[in-house]
Structures are given as C-alpha cells and as structure tokens.
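Suppose you are handed a protein chain with no further information: no name, no annotation, nothing but its sequence. What can you learn? This example shows the usual starting point.
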Amino acid sequence: MDSINGRTRIETAVNDVVSKLSSQQRQFVVEYLLHGNATRAAEAAGYAHPDKQGPRLRRHKRIQAAIDEYFHEQEMSAAEVVARLSQQAKAEYGKYMKWDPIRNEIFCDLERLIDDGLGHLIKKVGYERTGADSAVQVVEFYDAHTALVDVGRYHGLFGAKGNDDDPVIAHVKYIAENRGSDG
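A reasonable first move is to predict its three-dimensional structure. Written in structure tokens, the prediction is:
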C-alpha cells in the first residue's frame, strides 16, 4: 500500500466512522491500521508509554469498534464477489489485448485495464527473457473456467453428477438430444 495514499484513505475512513474518540485515539487507530502494531501506533500517536499504552488502547472498546468498523467498510458484498467472478469468467480482459504489428506480438494494455478498475482480473505480471538484452512482458490472468464454475455453483446450477432429476442437467440433456431435430 502506498504510504501516503494509504494513510489518507485510512484517515478519511476512520474520521467518517469515528466520532467518540479523541484526536489522539483516532491517530492511534490510523497508525494501527497502517502498521498492525499497537506499540508502534501508540508511539506515532504521541503516547508517553507506548509499550504499555499501545496494547491497552488496542483492547479499548471504542477503539476496537472503530477498527472493526473500518474493516467492515472494506468488506465486499456477495453481489460484488459474484460480479468480479463473472468478469473473470467472461474473460473481460480480452478487450485489453492488442496487436502490435511492429513487434508482431499481442500485448495487454495493462494501464487501461487497471484504470478501468479491472486490476483484479490479473493474477501475475512478469517478464520473460527473449534474448541477452531483451524481455517480453508476461501477464497471467485468473482462470476463466474456474471462475465460471464458481459462479455456476453460487447460482446452484450444478447438481449431483449425472442426476437426471436436476432441472439444469435435464434441460442440457434435452437440448443435446434434440439438437438438429428442427432442421
């Protein structure tokens, strides 16, 4: 996490949800969320005995509530999880794949993909040497098939394997058996 942007984001979130804490306690919460260390957070917030006050502050009911609220605000809803899995299943990264005729290769416009808020589709970015002084960027995306199966499970599309009583399987078998009979 970029320290300056992370700090600003956390301060904004904490200030939005915390009104019953002193400014020093709010600073403790921000520092704790940045570093995860109660003693370090108490020291940064200006407490006189951070090694004793940090752990005590971490157990303080209102401070714990502020930390819990911050993490609650960061949670993804079930709908957002399914939406992101659906983007993976649809391989929505495909529209960011471009052909470079000069280099005679396909590349991914990662900057545009990330700017469009789809960075979660990327599993890994690396480089592969192609010669002594050259390398190509290699982008690995999350598996679309796995995401498709996860979305299907969420929607209850898969029953027991081969179960003719499952309406989805029965419908798929009906389509397969009757394909071409209209022709």
